[in-house]
Amino acid sequence: MRFLAEALAELIAPTRCAGCELPGTLLCPSCDRDLPRIESHHACAHCGAPYGALVCTECWSTEFAFEAAVALGVLDAPLARAVVLYKDANERRLGALLGTMLGTVVSEAWGSWPDVVTWVPPTDAALRRRGFDHAASIAKAVAVEIDRPAHSTLRRTRARDQRALSKAERARNAAGTFRLLDSPFKLQGSQVLVVDDVLTTGATLDACAEALLAAGVCAVRVAVVARAW
Ligand SMILES: [Zn+2]
Ligand SMILES: [Zn+2]
Q: For the chain, what are the domain ranges?
């Protein structure tokens, strides 16, 4: 039955490469090769910017609450297209694919550092618009890849879409936006990895890290699929 359902789904909406629309695969070998990956030895260890290993112009004047960041790649084609297809064109299978790839980056950078993997919760408006929690699927695939548990730990207290805001407005909007959920996982004293799809100014992830640290978490690092640049 499952095979039949998959075959039918394939007939209605054939699987296509997220980068070039080649049929039959979510990411073809050529687009995989062309993915604008960030080389961790060139990247800023603090904010994940692609060329900030020595002096990072993105974050040298910014104090983030999270101690380190990694990204799979730069928010550029074909990765940018994959993120859009995943979030806004309902190609949900990309969540697991991108999460698994990001998990490899995390384990190369930090081994099995985190005690738990969590993610940036969506705004109510984004959840209604998309119908799914987009960062959750990515985070769960990261967690499987690095063999750590994944738990939902945060909720939003105020919802305002970050996308139309300036850098300063984003920082103001994000501050105090997150509260802790009751979680079966004991966060106090733990090392937490927060996952999201894109890091732009870092304000949202910074606010998540602040909320977790205020709850007694000992350290927060972040991992994102794409770093805006
Ligand atoms: Zn392709
Ligand atoms: Zn930086």
A: 1-34, 40-227
